[in-house]
Write a structure and sequence with these properties.
It contains three helices and five strands, in the order βββαββαα. With 137 residues, it is α+β, with helices and mostly antiparallel strands. It has two domains: 38 residues; 82 residues, GMP Synthetase, Chain A, domain 3 (2-Layer Sandwich). α1 crosses α2.
Length: 137
């Protein structure tokens, strides 16, 4: 998987992102120097976890041929503090008519989404710096 981010205009914080054939924008709110053209990178992280959890639950329900109806996942978390674990608060909202066994199983499956496992596991970063000649034109 690959994502590329680059500044969308001179002197702006907003970043255009290319992910496969998709384009997204991330920015900071005005009170932090941005123009609020899109969600912040932190908000995108919370959104990724919420979306991945919901998709994982939906895929599992399809395999079991359970008609779930509406599923909603809310994710909240605060900014990371050095030396303290980051706490993600997830609310998995399922239809009220499900059997208790279904609810229990879906709660277990929700915690196994790929983004959840990535955040929960050991993460390492490999970074390199590449110098690029400015475009002339």
């Amino acid at each position: 998987m690959k994502a590329i981010a680059y500044r969308s205009a001179p002197k702006q914080l907003a970043q255009e992102m290319e992910i496969r054939d998709h384009r997204l924008v991330s920015d900071e709110p005005a009170d932090k120097g941005g123009e609020d053209r899109g969600p912040t990178p932190q908000e995108l992280l919370a959104g990724s976890l919420a979306a991945c959890t919901a998709i994982t639950v939906e895929m599992y329900a399809r395999r079991k041929e359970w008609d779930l109806g509406e599923v909603e996942v809310e994710c909240e978390y605060g900014e990371a503090e050095k030396g303290k674990p980051t706490v993600f608060r997830l609310a998995l909202r399922l239809p009220g008519g499900l059997a208790p066994e279904q609810v229990e199983r879906l709660a277990l499956i929700a915690a196994k989404c790929p983004v959840h496992r990535t955040l929960e596991g050991e993460v390492k970063f490999e970074q390199r710096v590449e110098l690029v000649e400015p475009a002339t034109g």
